[in-house]
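Problem: given the chain below (620 residues), write out its structure.
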Amino acid sequence: MGGVANLSDTAFLQSIQWRKSADADLVRAARKGDVSAFTARLLQCLPAESPPTKSTKKRPAIQGGLATAEYLPAPPAKPLRELLHTSNGHFTRKTGKSTAVEAASLAEVLNSVAQKNYKTSPADLHALTELIACNGASLEQATLFLLWRTTLAAACEFTNDPSTTDEGDPAQTADEQLLQAGELPWRVGLLFGDVKGSTKIRRRGRKVIRRELEDRTDGDGTPHATLLPRLGYWLAALVRSGQWANRFQATLWDDDLSMLFNDLLEQAIRLYRPSDSWAMSNGFSASPRSLFRAASQLAGSEFKIADLAFAWDQAPSNTRKRKAKSKKSASASTKPRLKKLAPSSQSDWANLACLRSDWETECDSIVVDHNGQFPQIDMTVLGRALINGNWDLKIQVDGKPVSVKRQWTAICWNTDEDGDYIELQQTFASGGRVERQIWLSRSTHSAMFADSLTGFSGKQIEYSSRLPLSDALDTQSDSGDRETRLKDGPILTRVFPLFLPQDRVHGTPGGCGIFGDDLVLKHVAAGQGLYAPIVLDWHPDRRRKPVQWRKLTVTEDGRILPGDVSAGYRVRLGEQHLLAYRKLQKSDLPQTVLGFQTFDETVLGQFDKNGDVTPLLLVE
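Solution.
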């Protein structure tokens, strides 16, 4: 695409260089400088909406793609933004033509763009290309030609800009790089496919789009944790690029990348929140429902959970009246083909894990991003936000602080019908290590968070951690014991710090309580290590049940073990009676806790009525 000067319409057309394969009638009219004939032929050449496939006929139509400003990293200039907002990207033709008001409004904006009243941004070019593709066929010829010329001029300016490279600007976010280096060249190359040089630009954009998909996802489609705060913007660029590929009957993905894209959609939908937001979605406010609707149409029948996405799209977002479902009733409403698809996932490469009870919109879920200095937690209970932010950690050994770095490694992941479990580890150059455990039940509406500190050289360890709570919570502490309650409407989450004495009459240097907007845990222990588990329970049937927890005696070969060697706890809440055990120092001998003998490092179990333990989790 060559440079475009401020010429008359006739001279402008005659200055364009065309591909040899370009439409003959279009080229003939352009070379004659016949604006009327050129525009008439252009109308016939504009792409039509792709017909629905067999798998998408019953799904809602995509209205205007994902072109609205809320799906772009930055909005277009005010005139274009107002135009898109007013018309929603569409100009109706009640009598075969656009209304005079719409035509005048669009012409005014286009004249402003053409006269360079402001610098055309990538978002402006995006809006212009969308107007042509989606609305061009409904415009009057004079308005269409003005739009086409203005967009071509902006496209030439953009593609000839030296700063527009395949690599993108390192200072930009991933979604901004994808938009500018991938999606826009892809769009421009398709829209002006008859113009000389468009093939090179289109291929350049496709190369970047493909590279972005491969480089920023794991082999199972899991997006890297660094994408999460702006995942919606990044994913929207891929979806829009796919929509344009369908519209222009072009090939964007090969078979392997098509499967990877579908896998990405399945992983992304695991991060959906019933509040119509994303897990850890700082800065992205656009509706994920609309994005999933468009994405599932694009993926078609290969998208295994497309039907679920549409069921969610119709679901109400208010969950205050939500009641817990039994495991049986919850699975009954899930599509049969989803029963074999695990709701949870984990990726070492992506530094990301999603613990999830089921595929229901209002499930229990914990998303863990361990890419930073502290693991970031996004937890929902019965679909309502509970914890959101960094799981802070401070350690002092004999009064000296231990520096926590960005070096978390997922050393254990387990998922089965009982629950999901992840364990993160960090070792310290000064000696010692910490393991952070998270377990989420699939059916009992309960979870466990725990820190295990081992191998420290000193006489005393001071430990504290913070879990940031949702703003919507009302908090309270029991005056008689150390239970903390977190209330969100009818949903009550009870927190039991098992490492502390239950009764407040027993003094302890540790603590558990609300400080500011955080749940703060503190513990002080003698020796080389400690184990600090908390259990959370939000089952509606247990909200008023009495609770009892205590520390257990752990023995090995008839010898009672100190707390920095092994630790065991039990908590009883109604019919829920759990055992939490952790071996803090290596031993080849079995250890016994409340009659349960084990060689394992970690045990989470359920006591039955006879006092026998049924393991829910065993970690060697």
